[in-house]
Amino acid sequence: MPKFRIYPTLLNTFSYFLRGKITEQDLIDRINRVPTVATEAQQRGVSFEEALIKGTNQDAFDPDILRKARAKLPRPMVATQAYCQYEIGDVTLYGFVDVLGQRAAVDIKTTANYQEGRFQFDHQNFYLPALQKRGIREMRYLITDFTDVYEEVYGLETDFQLQLDELYHFKTFLTEHQEQITDSKIMQI
């Protein structure tokens, strides 16, 4: 049985910590799932995803941006919020990908400032090997800054070494701070 159960967003948060963008206490709070109030930007991202996929509250967004983004969604859409799981040694990586097509998984992102290649080392890239048995060959990030739509595509040949290094470093962090970890789902000791 795996010792750790980790989701990619938590690994991304650890990456922010390593780069000095959040404090150790902020990281521990996120590990422990301490409730926080969603920011306006986070809520706008959730609303955009719902407008894009479900057609909910579409009038809150530029119709041209919605049209451009929808044109990049896989057809047919096999599933939305599809569960993924991938084993790496004593770690189970798990989570939900926004859209699953027949050959591509898509994660929808919103941002105030897009920079090309931003998601190259995102830990959600682990969804790619997790979904390979289901025929998925590409992990796509569908990104909008609400003025345009961008796409990053990563295939099965993607190099995961940086993400793996951060995963192993995160395991060490969790072990060293286990007395502060209250979310029993993260570590099974």
Walkthrough of the structure:
It is globular, with a radius of gyration of 17 Å. The chain has helices at residues 8-18, 24-31, 40-54, 63-71, 127-131, 161-176, and strands at 4-6, 79-88, 91-100, 104-110, 138-144, 149-155. The chain has 189 residues and is an alpha/beta fold. Strands 1, 2, 3, 4, 5 and 6 form a six-stranded mixed beta sheet that branches. It is 34% helix and 23% strand. The model has no long low-confidence stretch (mean pLDDT 94). It has six helices and six strands. The chain has a domain at 40-166: Alpha-Beta Complex (Lambda Exonuclease, Chain A), CATH 3.90.320. The longest helix is centred in the last third of the chain and has 16 residues, at 161-176.
| Class inferred from helices and paired strands | alpha/beta
> What is the class of one domain in the CATH system?
Alpha Beta
Question: So, CATH architecture of one domain?
Answer: Alpha-Beta Complex
Order of helices and strands: EHHHHEEEHEEH
- Radius of gyration (CA) equals 17 Å
Biggest beta sheet attributes:
6 strands, mixed
Helix content: 25-40%
How large is the count of helical segments?
A: 6
| CATH domain topology of one domain | Lambda Exonuclease, Chain A
